């Protein structure tokens, strides 16, 4: 019996919710800069970035997207 449940997973990558600010980070500034260098856009994600994708997924426009892992990490590549 169909329950109408659709499952997708969103990988937001490094999203700065405050923990990546130099003043409040739990790691050295040099490490933050090293990670930041892996973003083509030169910035960490912001909460609004993955939120926009999630809003699309739950909208009528995203209804055909099923069973996917969606990466919305601004091109971040650790290595």
Walkthrough of the structure:
The chain is α+β, with helices and mostly antiparallel strands and 79 residues long. Helix content is 23%, strand content 8%. The protein contains two helices and two strands. It has helices at 29-36, 48-57, and strands spanning 9-11, 69-71. A two-stranded parallel ribbon has the order 1-2. The longest helix has 10 residues, at 48-57. The model has no long low-confidence stretch (mean pLDDT 90).
Which key features would you list for this structure?
single chain, 79 residues, alpha+beta, two-stranded parallel ribbon, 8% strand, elongated
Poorly predicted tracts of residues: none
Structural class, from secondary structure content?
Answer: alpha+beta
The sequence of SSEs as H and E is EHHE
Tell me the strand percentage band: 5-15%
Terminal residue distance: 44 Å
Strand order of the largest sheet: 1-2
Describe the structure in brief.
With 79 residues, the chain is an alpha+beta fold. It contains two helices and two strands. 23% of the residues lie in helices and 8% in strands.
Mind sketching the topology for me?
Blueprint: E1 9-11, H1 29-36, H2 48-57, E2 69-71
Parallel strand pairs: 1-2
């Amino acid at each position: 019996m169909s329950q109408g449940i659709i499952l997708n997973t969103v990988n937001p990558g490094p999203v700065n919710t405050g923990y990546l600010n130099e003043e409040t980070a739990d790691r050295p500034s040099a490490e933050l800069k090293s990670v930041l260098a892996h973003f083509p856009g030169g910035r960490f994600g912001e909460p609004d970035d993955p939120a926009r994708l999630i809003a699309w997924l739950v909208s009528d426009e995203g209804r055909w997207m099923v069973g996917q892992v969606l990466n919305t990490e601004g091109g971040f590549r650790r290595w």
